[in-house]
């Protein structure tokens, strides 16, 4: 009996130790996660699970679609309760719509970490997370991203991995030409072998459908849509089509220019802001154009480092400075959008107060003279 | 060996003008499939470039002139053509030129003769990052159905000519030795890493690529070197350093990746 008792104790202790050890291992996982290295898709998925576990009540994950090859497209939602129970707005960010632009998924992970590390201590971030939820998709074109990790010959893949249409032989559609925004009109190819092939029809690609479905049901909620690319060091505002201009072009330009300035200030690397037909090339079917057309006021494409030395093959020792710059730019636009929606309501309060004052003054003036 | 004049004879063949590799069932455009191991076949079209000669007389009749926003794409693309041109003249494994800013830009439509871009730009030198040189450049893109290279000329406040550096001399001495057999692939690698010893070869690939990029430039292109797929040292002839490159060039506008073979030798 003593022996079985001892055995029981031993098993319990080792069981506890095992559980404790596993908890420690799990808890230390994202603390040890290297944000300055490129991670493959299974590492990113594991990181996402870990982030959810480590931030209960703040971070949840949501699968909102499937890729062509059947993989789950998942986002992280960062949401802190509003203390007054006020209605919240949201920010959308997606990375890796083009498979070879590895710095983009690296930035989405960096962004999530930055928000989670600062939302309790940074005054402005604290205020913003009470009013804004964040929807972050670290890798949108998962099939393409996985493909670029196979070996060196696949590293420069750009498109999705859907099969060719009839009478053509090449795989993939350029997801950033596939959205239903002046689809197929400019800056696209109808040749399925082209890297700017726009697909057989608007949102023919499952990845574009996933974004479209999720966002179109939330166009009143989402005030800021940021889609992250490389390279070129630019902040692009709608539209890619040269003959249309967004109704709020002036404020898009103001916020975008401010973002480019903020990004330039971090490490003295030049970033510029403008519409694609001005500073890059005209093209249609982009996700940022679709988002603006769907009613989301602040919609941008970010092109991260570098200018042309390494291009898509940005060295890992540049991940940190590139992400610091991108964060400065994203934060600038998010702050601009936030203050427009949440500080203007305070101003509206001030306006109604002053109206009340004038009405009161006018009334007392009239009463004085009428009664006289 | 004449490094001072920076004359590079670049023998170049465009792989995608070559017959399709036997393993591919049907022809596919570059960038659509993973590029297989590329050998530089001898039956490809051979194009020979030497360093650029300075331009010929311009049409004296000035047609319509339009001021351009120097930050917008038209002026920027023309400035890249100037960048390629400068590197065909002065680029070495240890020195590359680029531009930091376009200050002013305008076009002159020369009618049949083409479209002329006049630029005021600041030229950056990788050897002397702190001082930039103000230059006036002209780029004339010819009109026509087929691709023809733009003609570039440039004059700067101060000369861009430099003496051969000790670094370049050492590099040449070291690698033109009879037993030298440099080789490499995927530079930079997927993670952006370049082995320090391979950096000059990577930079040299960039300079050699500017010959092709200039030749293939028009108002709708913007080329950069994406990656060196392969480098092989060829047998030295007459003490020359001879290298064979397979390079991947990225056109920002069409997003295509072009595979090109380049053979370099100093002359």
General description of the model:
The complex is a heterodimer of chains A (372) and B (267). Chain A has 372 residues and is an alpha/beta fold. Chain A has one domain: Aminopeptidase (3-Layer(aba) Sandwich), CATH 3.40.630.10. Helix content of chain A is 46%, strand content 13%. Chain A contains 11 helices and 8 strands. In chain A, strands 1-2-4-3-5-8-6-7 form an 8-stranded mixed β-sheet, with helices on both faces. Chain A is globular. The model of chain A has no long low-confidence stretch (mean pLDDT 91). With 267 residues, chain B is α+β, with helices and mostly antiparallel strands. Chain B has 2 domains: 149 residues, Roll (Nuclear Transport Factor 2, Chain: A); 97 residues, Nuclear Transport Factor 2, Chain: A. Chain B has 3 helices and 11 strands. Chain B has a 6-stranded antiparallel β-sheet with strand order 2-1-11-10-9-8. In chain B, strands 3-4-5-6-7 form a 5-stranded antiparallel β-sheet. In chain B, a hairpin with a 5-residue loop joins strand 10 and strand 11. In chain B, helix 1 crosses helix 3. The longest helix of chain B has 18 residues. Chain B is globular and about 60 Å long. Chains A and B meet through helix 8 of A and strand 9 of B.
């Amino acid at each position: 009996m003593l022996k079985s008792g001892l055995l029981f104790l031993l098993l319990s202790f080792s069981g506890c130790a095992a559980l404790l050890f596993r908890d420690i291992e799990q808890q230390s996982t994202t603390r040890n996660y290297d944000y300055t290295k490129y991670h493959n898709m299974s590492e990113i998925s594991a990181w996402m699970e870990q982030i959810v576990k480590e931030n209960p009540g703040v971070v949840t994950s949501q699968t909102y679609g499937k890729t062509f090859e059947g993989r789950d497209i998942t986002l992280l939602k960062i949401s802190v309760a509003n203390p007054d129970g006020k209605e919240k707005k949201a920010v959308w960010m997606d990375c890796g719509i083009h498979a070879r632009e590895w710095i983009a998924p690296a930035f989405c992970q960096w962004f999530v970490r930055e928000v989670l590390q600062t939302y309790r201590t940074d005054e402005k971030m604290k205020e913003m997370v009470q009013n804004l939820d964040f929807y972050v998709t670290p890798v949108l074109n998962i099939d393409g991203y996985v493909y670029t990790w196979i070996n060196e010959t696949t590293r420069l893949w750009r498109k999705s991995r859907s099969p060719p249409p009839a009478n053509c032989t090449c795989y993939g559609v350029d997801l950033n030409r596939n959205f239903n925004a002046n689809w197929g009109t400019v800056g696209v190819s109808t040749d399925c072998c082209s890297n700017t092939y726009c697909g057989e029809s608007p949102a023919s690609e499952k990845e574009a459908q996933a974004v479209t479905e999720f966002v179109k049901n939330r166009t009143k909620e989402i005030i800021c849509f940021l889609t992250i690319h490389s390279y070129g060091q630019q902040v692009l505002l709608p539209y890619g089509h040269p003959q249309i201009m967004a109704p709020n072009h002036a404020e898009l330009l103001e916020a975008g220019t401010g973002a480019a300035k903020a990004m330039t200030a971090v490490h003295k690397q030049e970033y510029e802001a403008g519409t694609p037909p001005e500073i890059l090339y005209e093209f249609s079917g982009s996700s940022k154009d679709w988002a603006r057309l769907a009613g989301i006021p602040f919609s941008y494409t970010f092109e991260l480092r570098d200018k042309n030395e390494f291009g898509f093959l940005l060295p890992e020792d540049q991940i940190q400075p590139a992400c610091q710059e991108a964060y400065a730019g994203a934060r600038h636009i998010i702050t601009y959008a936030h203050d427009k929606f949440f500080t203007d309501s305070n101003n509206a309060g001030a306006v109604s107060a002053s109206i009340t004052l004038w009405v009161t003054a006018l009334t007392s003036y009239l009463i004085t003279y009428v009664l006289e | 060996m004449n490094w001072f004049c920076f004359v590079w004879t670049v023998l170049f063949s465009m792989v995608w003008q070559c017959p399709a590799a036997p393993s591919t069932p049907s022809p596919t455009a570059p960038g659509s499939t993973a590029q297989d191991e590329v050998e530089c076949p001898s039956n490809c079209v051979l194009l020979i470039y030497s360093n650029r000669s300075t331009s010929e007389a311009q049409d004296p009749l000035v047609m319509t002139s339009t001021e351009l926003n120097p930050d917008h794409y038209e002026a920027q693309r023309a400035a890249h053509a100037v960048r390629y041109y400068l590197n065909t003249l002065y680029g070495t494994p240890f020195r590359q030129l680029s531009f930091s800013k376009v200050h002013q830009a305008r076009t002159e439509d020369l009618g049949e003769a083409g479209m002329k871009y006049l630029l005021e730009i600041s030229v950056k030198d990788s050897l002397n990052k702190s001082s930039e040189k103000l230059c006036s450049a002209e780029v004339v893109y010819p009109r026509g159905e087929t691709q023809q290279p733009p003609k570039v000329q440039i004059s700067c406040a101060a000369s861009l000519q430099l003496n051969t550096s000790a670094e370049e001399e050492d590099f040449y001495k070291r690698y033109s030795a009879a037993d030298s057999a440099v080789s490499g692939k995927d530079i930079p690698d997927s993670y952006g890493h370049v082995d320090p010893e391979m950096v000059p070869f990577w930079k040299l690939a960039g300079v050699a690529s500017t010959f092709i990029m200039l030749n293939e430039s028009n108002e709708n292109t913007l080329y950069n070197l994406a990656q060196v797929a392969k480098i092989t040292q060829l047998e030295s002839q007459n003490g020359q350093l001879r290298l064979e490159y397979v390079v991947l060039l990225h056109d920002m506008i069409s997003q295509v990746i072009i595979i090109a073979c380049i053979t370099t030798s100093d002359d």
